[in-house]
Every structure is written in structure tokens, then in C-alpha cells.
Amino acid sequence: MKKSFLVLCIITAGTLAACSNPNADWQKANQQNTVAAYQQFIQQHPSDARVQQARNRIDALKDEQAWTTATNANTLDAYQQYLQSEPNGMHATDAQDKVNAMQADAAWQNAQSTNTAAGYQDFLQKYPNAPQAAQAQDALKKLTGYQALLASTRSKALADKLAARLKGKFSDELQDVVVVPPSGKSKLLEVRSAPMTESDAKAACAKLRKAHQHCEVVKSVS
Fold first, then answer.
1. Is 212 left (phi over 0), alpha (psi -120 to 50) or beta?
2. Quick check: 149 and 218 in contact, CB under 8 A?
3. Average of pLDDT values for 191-219?
4. Are residues 124 and 153 in the same domain?
5. Would you say residue 172 lies in a domain?
6. Quick check: 120 and 136 in contact, CB under 8 A?
7. Distance separating alpha carbons of residues 216 and 20, to the nearest angstrom
8. Domain of residue 211, residue span
9. Closest CA to 178 of 195, 162, 193, 166
């Protein structure tokens, strides 16, 4: 009778689950510690109290596998794929840090290649805390270290009027026109262009002088 029951357990898949020992199967799954092993335990003992624990371990193993794949590839796309597949994974914060750093590196390389004030300003706006932020600030100062000085006056009303008129007339050359308040011992307000490179400031002044507009190149107000 016992022999017949044993044969039946071996042949019948459904009865096999009933014949298996949950404790032994759980120990086996722990020893193997693989997704397949825990999945097999769940299939064999779907009502066992340890099923949820098995599912948790499956999730953890899949998370580690996904993270290993991402770190081995060590690319922006790989870390983004990890975040997509494991948004609540154990390494989600590290993955996001990697994504941010790689995106900042790419943006910095682009800013350096274009080497324009707009490029550095865009970089600083998007990545103000990036390791390259100080370099971007220095590069920006070099590119915007000059202005075109257009007029000086004690009258705020006159300064504003001049700024509006010059901005409307020479917007292409000056980019912008601002009124700079007095500094130090000076009591004069200054009407200046937007910060620009020295060569751009010289070119702008050359055009404005031809139009009989006072213009001189000065260092930007810090």
C-alpha cells in the first residue's frame, strides 16, 4: 500500500506538491536563493504562510539582477532602463544620481563645444549644483565680462527713457539695455547694454557710433 502511494506521488504532478514537505522545500529554496527556486516553492505551496516572503525575495533578486546589468553597462540608457523596470528598487536613488550626473556631463560637454554665454547659462539653470558649475560661472564671466556704456545721467526718468529708446532701436546689437544704479561715490545712473564678450561690445559700439550714438566698451558690473 505504501509502495503504491509512493508511485502515485512520483507520477502525478498534482499529488507531488501534496507529497513534498513545505519546510524542506523552503530550506531548499533558501539554499539556492534564486528566482526559479522561490517560484517553484510558490507553485508547490501556494497556501503556505511563507509565500509572500518568497515573493519579496523574488522581487529583491530581480532588483539586484537589474542593478548588476545597469552597473556593468554603466551607460545613461542602462540606468534609465533600471529606473523604468525598478522604480521603487533598492538602488533607485543611486540610479537617479547616475542619470543626473551623466546628463550633466553631456550638457557640460555641449556647453563647452558651443562656448556661448547662452550655452553656459542654460547649463547653470539646469544643473546649478553640478561639479562643473564653478567652471561654467568662470566661462560665463569671460564671455560676458563687457558691456557697452551708452549714457550717464542723474535722472532716473531720463535713464529709463533712454534705455527704452535704445533697446527699441538697437536691440540686435545690444541684446538688452539696462539702467545701472550709482555705485561708490558716483551719483550717476548708467545706461548699459547686456553683458557680452569684449569683441561683441566693440562691434556693437562701432555700429552705434556710425548712427551717432555715444558708446564705449566697459567692464561689466559684477
1. left
2. yes
3. 94
4. no
5. yes
6. yes
7. 92
8. 144-219
9. 193
The pLDDT of residue 7 is above 50: no
pLDDT confidence of residue 179: 95
3-state secondary structure at position 148: strand
C-alpha distance from residue 88 to each of 15, 81, 220 (Å)? 38, 13, 48
The grid coordinates listed for 188 are 550717476
| pLDDT > 80? residue 2 | no
Q: pLDDT tier at 67 (50, 70, 90 boundaries)?
A: very high
Cα–Cα nearest to 161, from 196, 172, 212, 153: 153
Q: How many C-beta atoms lie closer than 10 Å to residue 185's C-beta?
A: 5
Distance of alpha carbon 29 from alpha carbon 41, whole angstroms: 7
Picking from 116, 184, 174, 182, the residue whose alpha carbon sits closest to that of residue 150 is: 174
The C-alpha angle 162, 166, 170, rounded to 5 degrees, equals: 175
Sign of the C-alpha dihedral computed for residues 68, 71, 74 and 76 taken in this order: positive
Residues 6+ apart with CB under 8 A from 42: 51, 54, 55
Q: What CATH number did the domain enclosing 175 receive? A: 3.30.70.1070
pTM above 0.85, yes or no: no
12-40: average pLDDT:
81
Single-letter residue type at 158: L
Shared-domain flag, residues 62 and 125:
no
Answer whether residue 70 is part of any domain. yes
Residue 19 pLDDT exceeds 90:
no
